[in-house]
UniProtKB/TrEMBL annotation:
Its EC number is 2.7.7.60. Catalyzes the formation of 4-diphosphocytidyl-2-C-methyl-D-erythritol from CTP and 2-C-methyl-D-erythritol 4-phosphate (MEP). This is 2-C-methyl-D-erythritol 4-phosphate cytidylyltransferase. Pathway: Isoprenoid biosynthesis; isopentenyl diphosphate biosynthesis via DXP pathway; isopentenyl diphosphate from 1-deoxy-D-xylulose 5-phosphate: step 2/6. It is an enzyme of class 2 (transferase). CDD domains: CDP-ME_synthetase. PANTHER family: 2-C-METHYL-D-ERYTHRITOL 4-PHOSPHATE CYTIDYLYLTRANSFERASE, CHLOROPLASTIC. The record marks R16, K23 as: Transition state stabilizer. The gene is ispD. One of its GO terms (biological process) is isopentenyl diphosphate biosynthetic process, methylerythritol 4-phosphate pathway. It comes from Sulfurirhabdus autotrophica. Belongs to the IspD/TarI cytidylyltransferase family. IspD subfamily. The record marks R158, K212 as: Positions MEP for the nucleophilic attack.
Amino acid sequence: MSNYIALIPAAGFGSRMGNEVPKQYLSLLGKPMIYYAIKRLCSAHVIKQVYVVLSPEDTMWNEYDWSAFKSKLNPLFCGGDTRAESVLNGLQKIQETVQADDWVLVHDAARPCLTNEHLANLIRVIGEDETGGLLAVPVADTLKRADAQGRVKQTEPREGLWQAQTPQMFRYGLLVKALQALGTDTPTDEARAVEHLGFHPKLVACDSRNLKVTYPQDLQLAALILENLVD
């Protein structure tokens, strides 16, 4: 029977936040933002282990008390220059403890509002799918493509477009193979790497609560969502 493990790439800085503190450690309701992703994944009974991939130069991780999650939580100080490199480094670091058909759920440290419902639905819908898949939201807004002067170049049709979220869930063996095959390509999510091999990941409908904190104002919205979560 396949195991489920989770991996949180958290070796980046998040420059668009305009803050000197790495984004994953920004304070959110009195906790570092990454705390909420860790708590959600560690509380899921189906997930066997949770790995956090940190920069080798990370000096902040040990400033916090993670003892509440010690039975599942494992920091890996092997992050790379890109998300894809960090994920691959983390997967290679744990290769002796996993099997090729184990499921890996890669989740953003900057998505603190993942719910139990979101997580359970992803695992249920993916089931034993041969490829795997990801949480996503159908695009609702009209999309404009800009020119070099910041003017509308054209309007893009939104039919069939989805906004990718995380977790993104793939078999360990497939995900490692996909990331190793990238070459100079640096995708911003794991699904793109799997697509590069010719696979078609399954889209699992989620909602806007599972937002990614990218800009300073997003922290306030995340706080409101967290304060009103009932699970």
